[in-house]
């Protein structure tokens, strides 16, 4: 894995795990409670991260960075 790949994965992780994203998703699927993200919310965002990562891999987007 090279530096560009690490940066791309870090950016994807940030986009899917920042509080604003949780607030947007919470309008559709309850992923927040009064203490922050729920375990189900974290699981949901993890699954979305894996799906996007798999799609990027199949589209060879990550392979171009490697």
Describe the overall structure.
It is a single chain. With 66 residues, this protein is mostly helical. It has one domain. It is 73% helix and 6% strand. It has 4 helices and 2 strands. A two-stranded antiparallel ribbon has the order 1-2. Helix 1 packs antiparallel against helix 3. The protein is elongated, with a radius of gyration of 14 Å. The model has no long low-confidence stretch (mean pLDDT 87).
Key traits:
66 residues; 4 helices; two-stranded antiparallel sheet
The helix content is: over 70%
SSE ordering: HHEEHH
Helix-strand makeup class: mainly alpha
The separation of the N and C termini measures 6 Å
Give the count of helical stretches: 4
Biggest beta sheet attributes = 2 strands, antiparallel
Number of domains: 1
Q: Approximately what portion of the residues adopt beta-strand conformation? A: 5-15%
Strands, total number:
2
Question: What secondary-structure arrangement, pairings included, does this model have?
Answer:
Elements: H1 3-17, H2 19-26, E1 32-33, E2 36-37, H3 39-58, H4 61-65
Antiparallel strand pairs: 1-2
Helix pairs in contact: 1-3
Task: Please outline what is shown here.
73% of the residues lie in helices and 6% in strands.
